[in-house]
Amino acid sequence: MSSRDLILARVRRALAGVPDVEITRAYRGPSERPGEIGLFEERVRDYHAVVHLVDEPGVAERVALSLAARGARRVVVPAGFPAPWLAAADAEAVADDPPLSAADLGAVDGVLTTCAVAIAETGTIVLDAGPGQGRRALSLVPDYHLCVVRTAQIVAGVPDAVARLAPARPLTWISGPSATSDIELNRVEGVHGPRTLEVLIVT
Prior knowledge:
Layout: H1 3-15, H2 37-46, E1 50-54, H3 59-70, E2 74-76, E3 92-94, H4 102-107, E4 110-113, E5 117-119, E6 124-127, E7 144-150, E8 154-155, H5 158-164, E9 172-174, E10 179-181, E11 187-189, E12 196-202
């Protein structure tokens, strides 16, 4: 008898006659409450991201101002990103078709995307490779990510977001710029993603 079989046999003997115990799991489900814009903005700022509130007619101007302030001359724009939002930008929109290499993505000044859903409680933005979002590498390799979030996409909590998302899609959950800390709690940004995250909330 192997050591494994011996251990399992002892466990079975110890559990012989023990009644089954029903384990209740009261997981929190979707709340159906709308996400609070102010809370989402506050949580995103807590992550050291840049946040702007803008109305629909002002998105193009705000995108142009943000890219200009960053000095971004070449930005990746995934297929499906609303063309009117780029109308005022003085920057080259780089298409990811055919797919750009990691070196090409590292050479651009940033990426401009939409999102699938945003979570007020955690300040998280979720991308699912849908229209205007592109593949996962687009939001991980460039050093600057400008993301446009509509207020209708903001939900209250994580269960609400999960209820809206398709689990089979490639999901990227973004909570602020990429950052990590070593054992001495020294924060280092840009280790495994963009060092700068800028979010435009369309009210």
